[in-house]
């Protein structure tokens, strides 16, 4: 049984003051959630602060991105070892905002995936199609291509210690959630696609859904057999909304 993991991607939001209040709210309600784990991914500038605030609690910490390089002359980037210094258990790689706004290629994302694992951090590999790709009927091909970039470079076993997040780009921040059936269809495809190479890896793989997930739709999404958690943007910025998603599972 793959118990769900719910991760909050705070993106580039908040201030030191608002983030302190958010973490305080999460800490007061974390005992009532119904999932394997809740994690938060603050902006890099606040990792040290949030790391200290969640130490010793059941709230896990994640980064939003990392460098593909281990160290060196890469101004502005954050290395996996640095995330590790602040006890990051997870790091998001290949978020659609990195792929589509910052132009990250499938190959660069695969390198970041490997850099995370080399640093002992579980990568959350985001995949998903643009609206026009869904309309062209190439959703599965896009997801397969994004996953194959990792498998081709590092082998299917690399997916063993990872999470995949299916985030249809048209559902991110738009209020348009994929229906549970639409999401389940793609999640099942992803699992079958990995299963063609290694069934045991596919069976153990956690596949999170992301895209306008909230307290109102989380239960139906998480009830689907291949939806093993959520990657939450907007609804992770208010403690009560995020905790309600954690209580909606199961
Ligand atoms: P929203 O939940 O705001 O749609 O964002 C989803 C997302 O991009 C999480 O990584």
TrEMBL record:
HAMAP family, per the entry: TIM_B
Active site: 95 (electrophile), 167 (proton acceptor)
Protein name: Triosephosphate isomerase
Parts forming coiled coils: none
NCBIfam families: tim
Pathway: Carbohydrate metabolism; erythritol degradation; Carbohydrate degradation; glycolysis; D-glyceraldehyde 3-phosphate from glycerone phosphate: step 1/1; Carbohydrate biosynthesis; gluconeogenesis
Keywords: Cytoplasm, Gluconeogenesis, Glycolysis, Isomerase
Binding of substrate, residues: 9-11, 173, 212, 233-234
Pfam families membership: TIM
